[in-house]
Amino acid sequence: MNIQYRFRGLNNPRQLRGLIERKLDHLTHLIPIGSAQVLLEHQHNVGPPFRASALLSVPGPGIHATAADHTLAAAWLKVVRSLRQQVERRALHQHLRLKGRGECRTMASQWGHAP
Asked: Best label site of 4, 45, 64, 93, fewest CB within 10 Å?
C-alpha cells in the first residue's frame, strides 16, 4: 500500500506515520487498499483545532472520511472508525446483492426458468 502524507502545523510527523500505518493495516484485512492519502493538521485559531482526513483507493468507488476533534488522536480515530463503517457497509450490501441473486436463481429453477 502506498501512503501519501500531508502534515500541516504539526511537529514530529515520524511518530504520526507509525500510528497511521498501524490503523490502515487493520483496514487492509477487510478490503485491499491500493493507496491512501492522509492529511493531518493543527489549526490554531479554530475549534476543534485538529483535523484529520483520509482517501483510500480501493476496488470500486474510493472511500473517504474527515473528522475534527480537540486531540489529534481522537480526530484520527474518528476517521478510522468512519472508514471501517463504510467498508463494512459496502461488504454487507455486496453480500445482500449476491444473496439476492442466488435466491432468484433458486426460485427460477423451481419454476423451470433457470438462467
From this structure: 45
Domains of the chain with CATH codes: 2-87 (3.30.160.100)
- E strand or H helix that includes residue 67: strand 63-69
Residue with cell 484520527: 76
Interhelix angle 72-110/13-28, rounded to 10 degrees, is 10
- Give pLDDT tens digits along the chain (115 positions): 899 999 999 887 788 888 889 999 999 988 999 999 999 999 988 889 999 999 999 998 999 999 999 999 999 999 999 999 999 998 888 878 777 666 555 544 555 554 5
